[in-house]
Amino acid sequence: MAGVLISMFPFYWTIVMATNTTQEISKYPPKLTFGPHLLDNIQRLLDSIDFFGAMFNTVIVAVSTTVLVLLLDSLAAFAFAKYEFPGRRALFAMLMGIFMLPLQLAIIPQYLIMAELGWLGSLKAVIFPATANAFGIFWMRQYMIGAIHDELIDAARMDGCGFFRQYWHVGLPAVRPGLAFLGIYTFVAAWNDYVWPLVALVNPDKVTLQVALSQLNVSHGRQDYAMVMAGVLLAVLPLVVVFSLFARSFIADATKGAVRE
Question: Where does the chain cross the membrane (predicted)?
Answer without folding.
Answer: 54-78, 90-113, 119-139, 167-191, 225-247
